[in-house]
Amino acid sequence: MMDGSKQQQHMDELSFLHAWQEKKNTTNTRQPLPKALEQTELPPATTPFPGWKHYKPFHVAMPTFIDPAHEQIFVRQKMNAELWGDNNESARLLGEIRIVKNGWYDTADDCGYKANYERHHADNMTHAADHFARLVPVMVPDGWSFQHFLDGVLPKLVQALPYLQTLQPNITILTQIKDANVRDMWHRLGFRDEQLVEGYRHKKYSADELILICRTPPIHPDLWKGAKENLGLFAKEGEKVILVARTNSNSRNKGRLMLNAMEVHNYLSKRYNQSYVFFDHKAYSFNQTLALFQTARLIIGGHGGGLYNLNFAPNSAKVVEYMQIEDYPNGKEVGYGIFWAMSSLLGQDYWRVYTPSIKRDFTVNVSQLDDLLSIVDDK
Predict the structure, then answer these.
(1) pLDDT for 177-232, tens place per residue?
(2) 340 contacts 350 by C-beta, under 8 angstroms
(3) Model's pTM, two decimal places?
(4) Beta strand 205-212 with 94-105: parallel, antiparallel or unpaired?
(5) Helix (H) or strand (E) holding 104
(6) Cα–Cα distance between 190 and 192 in angstroms, integer?
(7) CA 45 – CA 94 distance, rounded (Å)
């Protein structure tokens, strides 16, 4: 007989699985608005920007699993169920660009999809010490990093670029850049170094025209596919099989290392011969990385920053992600499934493989991988 806490946990899990099944069987259901918008009608779309933009509802496809037990692990994670299926919550399908004349920028803004534009006030009488003619703040938390530029800053730029390009070169971007790859992406989007100003939370900024672009859907296929187009990535299909493996020599952070990376490397090298590539980000420049992943047919890797490169791969590519879980097979995922979502938004064929966590690292079952690739290669 279960004790009280275990019984409650079991009941909570059954309740959640029931809700998940309901979502799986339901399509095109309008979700409620956040309280900030629930009392008002949606703002009308504005053509062209600036103003409001409405995005169409979209579907995030379920991952594919080689082991049916892995699907049950997947659905027990509430964040997975919240994202999987039809995404039609109205507030998450709205974008807005707003111009504040003689505006002061409040650096406490986190630049999220719920960004409160009202906190950036107009003041016709005073200027900050850092004053600009036209200022576009994009102060996304950790947006200086390669990963969070791709999933946080870039979608906002994709929405705003058609308007911002009409103002070029007479705009200044307030952002944070510490990564050379991020700077390279700004350049690819048409911005010069002198337009990029390092922003600091403790400082004050004002502008004759403060251009607010943060209110953008957190995820949407139009934004992810638009990002590739704006970066000049148009490959339709590839032929390379790429292993993205974190090792002691190429990892910036501890944990999530593929402990038998050499065994996996030898297996893939034998299976795919000249089509196989072991990707070590330290051996590639940013432009070389883009060129490589544009040729990808299949990407294999553990959960980690290297898989963000799937955003540069053709939409026809296949992705196999190894996701660690603690207390296998019933425990929590070590990381959230952002790569599954991004891959789905691009229309890629995404596979999820769960594996036990070994002191924050993991090994790949090569026999299971062989079975999986026999299926993937035939699709």
Answers:
(1) 989 999 999 999 999 999 999 999 999 999 999 999 999 999 999 999 999 999 99
(2) yes
(3) 0.85
(4) antiparallel
(5) strand 94-105
(6) 7
(7) 9
